[in-house]
Amino acid sequence: APRTVLISGCSSGIGLELAVQLALDPRQRYQVVATMRDLGKKGMLEAAAGEALGKTLTVAQLDVCSDESVVQCLSCIPGGEVDVLVNNAGVGLLGPLEGLSIAAMQNVFDTNFFGAVRLVKAVLPAMKRRQRGHIVVVSSVMGLQGVVFNEVYAASKFALEGFFESLAIQLQQFNIFISLVEPGPVATDFEGKLLEQVSRAEFPGTDADTLRYFRDVYLPASRELFRSVGQSPQDVAQAIVKVIGSARPPLRRQTNARYTPLTALKAADPSGRLYVRIAHGLLFRWPRLLDLGLRCLACGCPGTRVWPR
Ligand code: NAD
Q1: Beta-bridge partner residues of 138
Q2: Within this chain, do residues 238 and 262 fall inside the same structural domain, yes or no?
Q3: Domains in the chain, number
Q4: pLDDT tens, position by position, 202-238
Q5: Residue ID of nearest Cα to ligand 1 atom 38
Q6: Residue 43: exposed, middle, or buried by beta-carbon count in 10 A (0-12, 13-18, 19+)?
Q7: What is the extent of the structural domain holding 231?
Q8: Residue 159 β-bridge partners
């Protein structure tokens, strides 16, 4: 029988792509419940799903920040039984800390962290009873290492990494797999929405130097990074499809080989100095390196040969 896959945040980006790719699986292995907070935004998903709509893909309402919405959504799934849960819904928060409200920071944790925890609590009892299941979490390379001016977003992804790595140990006893997928920069609405927010924001209480570093140094460097190593949501979705189809799914899976030179720095120096020094240098001292798209400096290859995944 096809596996029931519940995905959060499918009105755009990675969630939309993943829902469609799974629903169009040539071997018809999946029955996809593609959820979104606002059903008014289902047009793009329905158009992309085409003939799969109403067959291998259904659309349902789900706000990951609401207990009632989670209960309501699961009650529409026969037996409430989810074989694969994909925690994809997420929001970003960008800018100097001094100018961000605690309420905005709490919203990031409510969505990115507690949103995933809420769904896991809801599907876990049935998964444990059946002794099978797979929980996939769309984390980020920012769940592995911090990125300047993304402190709270990175913290929410670190929280996911710690939570799910801890849970994976218990769930191995129940034959339930956990996979944290860690994309680098992805060209979706995510970055567009953030850049629009920061272009309107004033970041009150922030000193002039910090504002200048953010607007004149960080933002151009970030755009350059998205341009040079950014992945498409289709590519990320394809990597997640592989993880879901795997007989022994990995706990962690980075999707962007071009970004691995940066994530490797943390493992290379457990003191943490190397990563902080190079991340600082790339931003403030040698930003032109980003123009090279983090290519291997020795031979100019995109990094895959010297930095195997
Ligand atoms: P996106 O903005 O297109 O998708 C995020 C989705 O989450 C949106 O459809 C949004 O409506 C939904 N969402 C937000 N709050 C919600 C809530 N309370 N309930 C239900 N849905 C809600 O961006 P995306 O890039 O496709 O992001 C998907 C995931 O990928 C996120 O978890 C994000 O953190 C992660 N990610 C993105 C990037 C990137 O560069 N775009 C990189 C690494 C990881």
Answers
A1: 181
A2: no
A3: 2
A4: 999 999 999 999 999 999 989 888 888 899 999 999 9
A5: 186
A6: exposed
A7: 3-255
A8: none
